[in-house]
Amino acid sequence: MSKGKAMTVFSLPVIVAALGYFVDIYDLVLFSIVRVPSLKGIGISGQELIDKGVILLNMQMIGMLLGGILWGILGDRKGRLKIMFGSIFLYSVANLANSMVTSMEAYAALRFIAGVGLAGELGAGITLVSEVLHKSMRGYGTMIVASVGVSGAILANFIAKAFDWRSAFVIGGVLGLMLLLLRLGVAESGMFKGMESRQVRRGNFLSLFTSTDRFGRFLHSIMIGLPSWFVVGVLITFSPEFAKVLNVQGVVNAGNSVMFCYLGLVFGDFASGAMSQLLQSRRKVVLIFLAITVVAIAVNFLGAGISAAAFYGICCLLGFGIGYWAIFVTVAAEQFGTNLRATVATTVPNFVRGMTVPITLLFQLLRKPLGIQGSALCVGALCMAVALFSLWRLQETFHKDLDYFEEYL
Prior knowledge:
This protein is mainly α. It has helices at 3-9, 12-41, 48-78, 80-98, 104-118, 121-132, 138-150, 152-162, 165-182, 190-196, 212-223, 226-236, 239-245, 254-279, 283-301, 308-321, 325-334, 341-354, 356-393. The protein has 19 helices and no strands.
């Protein structure tokens, strides 16, 4: 890259979007890490640690699904920057309040509110970066956003170990509010400003379902992300159980599995972004990383009797394989016109996260007849097949000019 291009890539909108996603991932992962000590801290114990934990996770997920639609529509109607301000303010305040909960009811309500806030960050950031950078540089911009962003999971693991759970939530809230000040200097997308002066319908979520073409692009954009949340929702979440079945030597901790997975994601997102620029293709890169994920899953189940350190290495490889996350969101954003782009870019990743529910339910359903390994392999194969089919159906968008509108009634 030339110096001029490098300065464009490392511009304030890119940096702010990256830091926003960093705080987003910090909070998203922090809850999973501090779930047990936080529930014990409000007087819950025994089997209820799992039962109540599932309720809290589902409340957060419902919030993210609804928030994805809400922020997406607002992003196309009110502007990309406004939802970046609104979303981070909402989940920062929810985090601060989360540090003071004393009841399950309050905890559940705040996880829902935090979920709504968390839903807007990535889609808004990717939309803004895609629109302010030249089409030849978009991949580098989203590479930076994702690589910096997912490293928030690593910080969450260290903070959770160094501080009590209440302090960890406070730190997340303070980081978010500090980022709000930095965002004051960011300018709105020129494409959105140009759209404001035009008589064009914006942010019509239902229009995604009134056209076979639009619905197909929307659905396939979601489905190429399925393997990522199969890995996180099944293989990493239940890593202690898989380690036991595989006779891994040593104790495997779920928090460490998450940390090493996201460490792999940092390098994967960086590599996928750079490769999309070198190959001048999004689809080829997604295909390559899906292949890496298949290899990583195979290595995971062939690792019987390995050490805990080697198992964590496989978690890192799994994370690298699903490191096409930012490219996947970029593909979704590039599939649609300016008047629907934020709606799609914000809803797609949250719908994929929501697919964790049917993925884990199917995994649990098949677990009894097939065992934990057989069930995981079947669910993983299904997710991979759907993702490959959807990738085949989507158009290449690397060279696409994004300054256009979707036409709908």
